[in-house]
Amino acid sequence: MRDVMGEGIELREKHNISRKDMLQLLMQLRKFGKVSGDEEDCSLKSHDAIGELKEFTLDHIAAQGVILDIAGQEATSTATAYTIFELAQYLELLARANKEVEEVLERHDGQLSYDALRETAFLELCLQETNRKYPLPFLNRECTQDYTIPGTKYVIEKGTPVVIPLLGIHRDAEYYPNPMAYDPDRFTPLSPNYNGNANAYIPYGAGPSQCVGWPMGMLIAKLSIVKLLPILTQ
The domain at 91-232 falls in which architecture? Predict the structure, then answer.
């Protein structure tokens, strides 16, 4: 990843190439310590440098590339694989998912489009349940201010690294009855089978650090499942 990012940066700087993409923003950050607030301007020429910024290096840029690669591929493929795994064990759910896809495709003249995928409401529920039962095991965060744990005198000081155990929260019977069961309908808006605590379902994180790519990830997972369903139902 260092080589890929390094060659990309060298090529752009040598030939004054500017593109509206993540690498260009990372190049701005490395050179100026900030990124442009103007969508129309992703160049490296229009901003004043803010001093000798040495902290953001090529290694940091390469690390961002690694994270994007993992988040964009591994998380999506894992959600797809576990959904297929669960549907293969519950034939009634598999039949229900397949019927939904057939009906959606019939309404869209057999064309698998973005609009068609948005209509696969049951697949959406399946992916929600998959992400509950099989989330990323934990999230890493950093405490931004002193925080006293309710009911105790214990204070988590500002700057303390915090590990949030998603697997434990998502499989806690306090929030999800019969947590090891695969039940997509627990997320049905009209009759949810969980306690509704928003903080108990955070497969993509929450707040400013929430994954920005989760809608796209869900869409790709749906597409993958739709392509695999005919094989599973043969």
Answer: Orthogonal Bundle (1.10)
- What b/e readout covers 148-168, taking b as 16+ CB neighbours within 10 angstroms? eeeeeeeeeeeeeeeeeebee
Are 152 and 169 spatial neighbours (Cβ–Cβ below 8 Å)?
no
Q: Which amino acid is at 57?
A: T
Torsion from C-alpha of 110, 214, 201, 104, nearest 10 degrees: -10
59's enclosing H/E stretch is helix 58-69
Annotated domain spans of the chain: 2-36+47-56, 91-232
Sign for the pseudo-dihedral over CA of 82, 86, 91, 92: negative
pLDDT per residue as tens digits for the range 48-104: 444 444 578 899 999 988 887 777 788 889 999 999 999 999 999 999 999 999 999
Half-sphere exposure of 112 (CA within 13 A, CB side): 11
